Amino acid sequence: MPNAKRWVEPDPRRENWFWPTEELKARAWAADEKVYEESWADPIRFWEERAKEISWFKRWDKAYHDEPLAYKWFVGGKLNLSYNSLDRHVEAGKGDKVALIWEPEPPNEPNRVFTYKELLAEVSRLANALKELGVKKGDRVGIYLPMIPEAVIAMQAVVRIGAVHSVVFSAFSPESLRDRMVDCGAKVLITADGYYRRGKAITLKQNADKGVEGTKVERVIVVRRAGLDVPMDPSRDVWYHEIVPKQSPECPPEEMDAEDLAFILYTSGTTGKPKGVMHTTGGYAVQVYTTCKWNFNLHEDDIFWCTADVGWITGHSYINYGPLMNGVTTVVYEGAPDTPDYGRMWAVIQKHKVTAYYTAPTAIRMHVKWGEEWPAKYDLSSLRVLGTVGEPINEEAWLWYFKHIGGGRCPIIDTWWQTETGANCVQALPGIGPFIPTVAGRPFPGIRAKILDAGGQPVQPGEGGYLVLEPPFPPSLLRGLWGDPEKFKATYFSEYGPGYYFTRDGARMDEMGNIRITGRVDDVMNVAGHRLATAEVEDALSQHEAVSEVAVVSRPDEVKGEVPVAFVLLKAGYTASEELKKELVKTVDKHIGPTARPAEIYFVDDVPKTRSGKIMRRVLKSLVRGAPPGDITTLRNPECVEQLKSIVGSGG
Ligand code: WTA
Which of 358, 362, 391, 524 most suits a substitution to test ligand 1, by most atoms within 8 Å of the C-beta? Predict the structure, then answer.
């Protein structure tokens, strides 16, 4: 890497600590420690300064409204997310700059490239088509699309007209789609015929058809991506290419109130039913814009590639809104990281001269397995910043990423956040550091975080506890759960009251304020970076006729971080078999999707229960970790633990 600059240097006193070089500091948006103390002392002022960098149709009257469970930001301000992502760059004379590069999975298929001007025109055309189909401000529009430019275009078009998108991961089952469409009452769905994954054309439209049955979805727009022959219902379905190109390329953006709903994104909680996380316009725009800019050190010439799927919050904030609001180029990749071979990601970085690369620890661990010879074949010297997200990163993966992808030159920004926080909240800033494996870093400027014990007292540095956020809450923190205010309160504001947002993550903090996330403290798993509730998998399995009872817990996994493991009690008349295991896996596919497949299914006679009949998942969790079961004296059926131990020990 002849001309590649060095952005970090090792700490001479502490092994595996790294600091920004003068070169990086000179380019960074924040390079002085003072930004922390100053912004934490007055977060409202900090965020107001940041908010001035984006475009408002009308400035806010009041920056922060502090009310329990009804906090608000930029009250009275008017803006539009799509205007901030597109129009303002075109108006600033940057219309010919490349906004989006799409890399299809088939390596020989040409890229699709959109300048800001072209993207704005296409978004406006789709926005007009949505209007033609009767979509109005506040209406919900479902998006069930693969990783194609239209996924970004669709989100942008929906918020442009003041409607509310709810994106559903394209690998989710029809049933998952239906649950979400019913819950949010979507009127229109945007989907595609199919897409390419590992060299095969996968159909999506048939899933969409099943998913909209019994919902309020009246119209379905279908993008032709894979040239598949798909059934079209003429009274309901319309091809994207038949309704969009004929529209006007101009569509005035709706003036949204800062607190108007922008989107709903469903995520896993502790129950079987996913919750609709609500994000509003102003606070979300400001925090996503700022974190994307500061954490990835974005400038005019950056090519940003976030490998998440648009179905997750990371895709919303760091494929679409973050990079586009910053006016940089965002890369969208359609397919799998191992197609046509293990070098694909590195080939894409080389081809498009990617400068900032943002991925998940689970992906890095996969690359570690595939071997460093793959990245070694490519010129990765364009990279300046690396990011990770979604789960704690282990030291081995961090160091591998640092050395083999970043060439030992680039900082790794380990960003902690959640669907609920909408944008990054904890990480090391590139111009400040330090960059330490397994340690995310300090709260972002203007964000106040603490580690509390179960009683609500702050813990000593180095001690484990629970991560909470304090008011003024981050601008992009969720404003509620769609249709379920009680659950909003119970999930985030009951343990410590309305004065703290409870993240449900365990963490510890060092003397300097660096936070290390230890993982979820509830029944939520992180499976290959995908968030999943044990209860969802239990719900799915229990719908199989053979299942009388089921308990699902997570088990650590070398590559995926965690995987679900199921303990199944069969109804009388059914016998355990490999065949039945396969059927159960299919049931999970049907109700949720392949991401939720159990790694192991144990057929058992009993599971540990309390005297009141509640399953003690804690005991099962210990067993699958090969750990002692802990206190089992309160169990109704302690005798089952020995049997389970031998079953788990023998591998099922
Ligand atoms: C976990 C993804 C450790 C955490 C953006 C959180 C992390 C959950 C990190 C949210 C990180 C996310 N280090 N753990 N850098 N980032 N998590 O809603 O447990 O899909 O609560 O949002 O992922 O997952 P979600």
Answer: 391
